[in-house]
Amino acid sequence: MLKVEDLKKKFIRINKKKQKEEFYADNGISFMANNGEIIGILGPNGAGKTTLLRMIAGILEPTSGKISIDGLNYQENEIDIKKEIAFLSGNTKIYNSLSTYELLNMCCDFYGVDKSIRESKIKSISKILKMEEFLHSRIGNLSTGQTQKVNIARCMIHDPKYYILDEATSGLDIISSQLILDFIKEEKKKGKTILYSTHYMEEAENICDNVVMINKGIVIKTGTPQDIKKETKTTNLRDAFFVLIGGSYDEK
Amino acid sequence: MMKSNIFNVLKKELRETYRDKKSLSMMFIIPLLIPVLVIGMSALFDVQMSKTENTYNKIGFDYAFNEAEKSVAKEMKIDFTYAKVDKLKKLYEEGKIDLYITRENNIYTMHGSDNENTSYALILAESYFEAYKGILENEYLAKNGVDTIEFNNLISVKKDLKTEDNYFANYITNYAFLFIIMAITISATYPATDTTAGEKERGTLETLLTFPIRSKDIIIGKFLSVSLSSIMTGIISLVLTIVSLVIAGNTFELYEGIDMMLPGSSMLFSIIVIIFYSFLISGLCIAIASKCKTFKEAQSALTPLTFISFFPGMIAFMIEVKSSALLSLVPFLNFSLLFTDITNGSVELINILLMIVSTLVVISLVLAIIIRQYKSEKVLFSN
Questions:
Q1: Which of A6, A89, A206, B349 has CA atoms 20 to 30 A from the CA of B314?
Q2: Which one, of A90, A10, A1, lies nearest residue A50 by Cα?
Q3: In chain B, whose CA is at the least distance from the CA of A12?
Q4: Which among A79, A92, A95 has CB closest to B16?
């Protein structure tokens, strides 16, 4: 189980008057994800989704609040938590100078995957993701779709319990996006917990068990897509979002 | 676990470095400039020296030589010309002679301007007069019944100069070793930039941070990888320096009678200096580059470091600063002074130990600062 309580992250930015000012990218986020659930983190660009997921993945330190994963916290169990997590974002880049095989082997090194099962694991993942033909090619020479497959393989290699996917389909073509969505569905079947952030509300509606709607660093609604639509008297999450923020969206 | 993670980061970084053509060229091409420097400068000095012997020897005289004068002039390889003063002046202005000498009774006057050719010819002319004066003195003494052999042996002056005191050998060796420092610095900046700001710019740092590794392990792994690359450059530079010094020693007359080969102990000390200098420069490069958001920004930020690393040694060499226990604690300067001592064969163990202590303290501080910074989003994310 993954639990986030009153999570805040403060940044300093330079305003138009070229003065430093503090602002909260996330300002008191709380939610819970049970095992085997897909939780959609929804919100427009700049809502605080990436910061939130980076904190949950242990890349950023929260200003305050608690993150608990299977009863463990980052202050005391950073390494143990990270072993159970896979993080993939739309901006995630991988090492172009390595081959897919070398990258997966390197991930095995970092996650401490037993050497006796590595070969079979790499083989089986390449078979599932149909990567055999470019397993030994340099990543820098692969197409976007192939690179995305490598990224998914990287996430699967240590068999994590939690997947944190931040705008993972953003900027991808329809085939590459489908690859990610299929992967999410498959992993859910295996009982994995998935945090899936997107600003494509329709996409989330199709795959998420529960959604957390965020705007300007604050949770504006949590619940199942059906409940939220029912409550806001809308037919889709996009319209529900606009109802929840009062009809219009101010990017500031 | 911690050790294996440092090793895993090191393995990853080394693999990336050795697959990057730019990093490789920095590591191997810069040291190749050392033989060019050593052999090129030696050839230049050699030509200059032989020039002074054979080129600036054209001297005009407004009087005809007697037999004794002719014999001395020939022995000293003076290319002499007889002419009247006006003609000699014209020849001098046209650059056909380097100096001209006129005689009035027993007063000889050397004429010319204060330039390089005349200065060398002047030295030659002074030696010529000294030799000729010696012959006249001996003749005079003999005429007056003085035993010239006994007279000349009243005092005797001998030369006992060590071969290390050869100016050119010292000069070239010191510069070659200063170049090793520069080669290490240049070779450290590229991988340090690539592994920090480069990784940030390429977006792979985020991936690395998701792995179950502590910031400390990431930094130490990166630091060791840059250090190893620098040490490799340093060792290659040292080997090339020694080889080119030996080749120069056997090729150029300039180093005749001087053993240009470094003794084993000097090589060992040089390797120690190279290792610790590589540690220092790698730590500093990583510290500076990790605060930069892009590769270009890091390269600009590291440029002053390249100069800082080279200048203290160069200035110390020029104004002949001698090593001391206190100076052995001063980063950058201590390495250059130790290299000078090593090449002179006068290195003291205590100075090496003090350099090691000073370097370890600086590296520990620098690494501690970077490890702290590596938890801050200001350092980790360019946006």
A1: B349
A2: A90
A3: B378
A4: A95
